[in-house]
Amino acid sequence: MKKSYRKIVFSLLLAFVLVFGAALAGCKDNTPEDNGGNGGPSKPVFEDTQYLLSQNMTSDYRVVIPDDPDERDEFAADELVYFFRQATGITLPVYEESDAGAADHLLIIGDTALRREAGLTAPDSIGDTGTRLVTQGSNLFLFGKTPFGDINAVYDFLEYTYNYRFYSDGCFRIDSVGNAALKAFDYTCTPDIDNMAMMYGELNDGMSWTRRLRSINYYRSWISAMYAHTYFKILPPSTYLKDHENWYSPFTAEEDGPANLCLTRGGDEMIDEFVKQVQILIEAETDESREYFMLGQEDNFSFCSCDSCTAKIKELGSSSAVMMQFTNKVVEKLNAWLAEEHPDRTVHFMTFAYNNTKTPPVKRDASGNYLRNAEGKMEAVDESVKAVDNLSVMFVINNVDYAVPYYEDVSVMNMLEGWSVITDEITIWQYSTNFENYMEPLFNWGSMKTNYETLSDYGVFYIAEQGSHNTKTATFTEMRLFVMSQLARDNSLNTGDLIDEFMENYYGAAAPAMKELFNRYANHCMVLIGNGCSVMSGGASMMNRNNWDFMLLERLLECIDEGIELLEPIKSTDPELYNTLYERVYKESLWIRFCELSYHGTYINNVEEERTNFVNECYRYGITAPREGGANWDNIW
Question: 61 and 180 share a domain?
């Protein structure tokens, strides 16, 4: 008999909540001959060469980047210079390749003539963000298949040479090494999830934090900002509805307008105009590091209900089949145009499996059950619904219990299996916040690792991880970003080890109290889950007055007080460090105080004054919204 998922969740949680350990690992490490990885988090060991990177506060090395460098290669060079200086006290010079002069003692970043002359290439298998480090003589080549990989190669070099590790904005670890030898590198790293794009307010200010997490910026991935829901951006009703009503789904006089495009009635005229507008948007984008273009339905649960679409859905069995037929025709035309007009430009198209179109267009019986062939595999309802070349499907995993591993959710697994029949390139949009209450510390810590493992098994190469995208938050967010980025890059890592490592480095002397806070919170959430609560991206199943009594919240706040007390010895000896750690600890009290002020106001003296003080503190930390949808703190209570 199949085990209860609740029991599985508990075993996963207990594995890391009750036991903390040390961990040092990045993505899976492998040689060029073994791009599959070693299946574990152990770090490779590299022998020292005879060449010294630094000695007695001097260095013969210089950094070399390509001529006319990409912005990301300039960033990689700046990062190498900055962290090399942190480790050695030495500032390395940076040269474009044609100005480098010397032929030895070079740290060579990216796609240079020097690299090509050395016969070094990046295998396709490492993806957009994988890396290679290769030592030849006194020179070191640091590169990937793309400039994103070039950046990550710098971080790999720093990790294996100076024990570098980035945790959060303003928090990293690096050893101080006066005399360090160049390692004999021949190293390749293939991430489990190639592109991890995390949508969090903390990452909205600049690119450094995102890139140091080995991640990409979601919003800066997309050509002409064509991400998410783009149908009406491509064919806006304000422009086309009057003369082309049949291009849109029917709507009544009482409605503001159509909910979506109609994908069957417009014929070649509509497809040609759709393609034309996409071409205009592609050519308008000058930043060629933006390679993705979403052909995505509007943000609702609707699909066109006209007679034509209804008949097509009946014929093919799903609205997703209609969507795929339309999108395939569009992408085929765009592929031909790109090949002729822009042969050197990389553009990758995606479409949404979202709400009404989540169900994959594979064969099912009259009751909706998925059918499998003699080999036990699902089959497409028609060849015309299989994604053409250069088209990915972004499957949105929503309306699920995020405490439950995906592999225990039959619906999610059926959809993953079905979409893997339709496309070789599944991408994922998933959630890690409660959009109705950003102050909920969403408890998906026990399922996080296994979910990344599941997605990696299905070949997912891009994850849009949507959290509190329009504000910063105070719900273990910095730790969540670190742990998610590490687990996505290397599924073999242990969640509890990563939590422990983060706390030791981020909270310093206050780490024991913050671990106790997390343990109390985690154990309580496990009890709530065991009693039937669900961890959702909306609603109040977990966060309500009944689940968080006042005395429990007071005990959680005691951990904050204890953490601040543990910092007291450095208050006079290192006031700058004290203030930094104090702010990190105190910030985590905000979600607890929010619960008290929301659920137990009658227990608090001068509650209105306390609420005002609380809101002011939220703004001080950049926490400008309690939930999604344009809400602010003015009318939260």
Answer: yes
